[in-house]
Amino acid sequence: MVVTFKEENTIAFKHLFLKDYVDGADDSYAVYTQRDLYDRCLLRQYLAIPNETIGRYAYVRGESGGNQSALMLCQQYYRKGRIDPANDTFNIDPKIPLPPELDRSYKNFTLKFHKLINVTIQFKLKAINIQTIINNEIPDCYTFTITITFDNKAHSGRVKIRLDNQADIKECKDPSVFGDNSFRLFFDVVVILVCSLSFILCARSIIRGLLLQHV
């Protein structure tokens, strides 16, 4: 059930954050134009989570507290790069510098496609697996770490996109379940007693059969 909950949320995240995603299209999901890549940088989808999603998710705030979001956008690129196919020339500095921190102007960020290696967007969402209540179990609380990678290492005109989801599971704080579970508990006890009685009767029949064989 734990695995199922994580897998179903992973599928939900792909449909929420990967535009026009189709189930099973992980290997072929890619973009080919600059506009499409900007379109899939999901900042708007991330901000719309409380109003758009069917599932109940909560943001994980930044370490500094307050209302700062924990979303991180990171660009990896060559320090210098110039590619001129018309003249069959290029000038690339393969050193990869550390990217600067994303400031509040993230909505207006630009990508330098001629030297871009990849773009990574990472954020965390919290959820509760309440389906375990059916089995009289205390629900688990999940923290999902979602990482979306735009892979341009090949510089082939095709930017591959993938979404990875890691789950951190822990017991929920102060769980509270309303309602009377006495009937369900009574039913479970009856089922256990019936199964035990059936086992005893079957065992007795087998023993009697073995004894008759030796008579």
What can you see in these coordinates?
This protein has 215 residues and is of the alpha+beta class. It folds into two domains: 1-171, no CATH class; 180-214. 29% of the residues lie in helices and 27% in strands. The chain is built from five helices and eight strands, in the order H-E-H-H-H-E-E-E-E-E-E-E-H. The protein has helices at residues 2-17, 34-39, 43-47, 49-52, 182-213; strands at 30-31, 58-59, 72-77, 80-84, 89-93, 116-129, 140-151, 159-171. Strands 1, 2, 3, 6, 7 and 8 form a six-stranded antiparallel β-sheet that branches. The chain has a two-stranded antiparallel sheet with strand order 4-5. The protein is elongated, with a radius of gyration of 27 Å. The model has no long low-confidence stretch (mean pLDDT 79).
Question: What's the structural blueprint in terms of helices and strands?
Answer:
Elements: H1 2-17, E1 30-31, H2 34-39, H3 43-47, H4 49-52, E2 58-59, E3 72-77, E4 80-84, E5 89-93, E6 116-129, E7 140-151, E8 159-171, H5 182-213
Antiparallel strand pairs: 1-8, 2-6, 3-6, 4-5, 6-7, 7-8
GO molecular function, one term: NAADP-sensitive calcium-release channel activity
Transmembrane segments: 185-207
Protein name: Mucolipin 1
Task: Describe the structure concisely for a colleague.
The chain has 215 residues and is an alpha+beta fold. The protein has five helices and eight strands; from the N terminus they run H-E-H-H-H-E-E-E-E-E-E-E-H.
